Amino acid sequence: MPNIQNRLCGNLPKIGIRPIIDGRRKGIRESLEEQTMRMAKSTAALITKKLRHPNGLPVECVIADTTIGGVAEAARCADKFAQEGVGVSLSVTPCWCYGMETIDMDPLIPKAIWGFNGTERPGAVYLSAALA
């Protein structure tokens, strides 16, 4: 690969990956933790491998430290993304979630949701709820 340098002014924006999960405990959340984080890590790997900035450098991803099943975790994720220079937010989920507790509320960052519809707790329902 050729030697690519950032000739643009300022830092390049990163993509923030938000692993969203059903926050209910007693076996529900616990059964989805690994699958949800694996989905976030796979998404970040795909983006880093396939997407490039206009100058040719690969797009960097930042993944939340934990899955997001409630307001406190969403707030910690927002703080991390602000510190890391995240400019785009992508929420990923394989399951149903509480939309108002987990959605990205930053009005200044473009966002997307990938809700995988392959389980009995479809993530596509989260996408529809977030859009409502």
Automatic annotation (TrEMBL):
GO terms for biological process: D-arabinose catabolic process; L-fucose catabolic process. Keywords: Carbohydrate metabolism, Isomerase. Transmembrane segments: none annotated. The keyword Glycosyltransferase does not apply. GO terms for cellular component: cytoplasm. Residues 13-132 form the L-fucose isomerase N-terminal-1 domain. One of its GO terms (molecular function) is arabinose isomerase activity. InterPro entries: Fucose_iso_dom1_sf, Fucose_iso_N1, Fucose_isomerase, Fucose_isomerase_N/cen_sf. PANTHER family: L-FUCOSE ISOMERASE. This is L-fucose isomerase N-terminal-1 domain-containing protein.
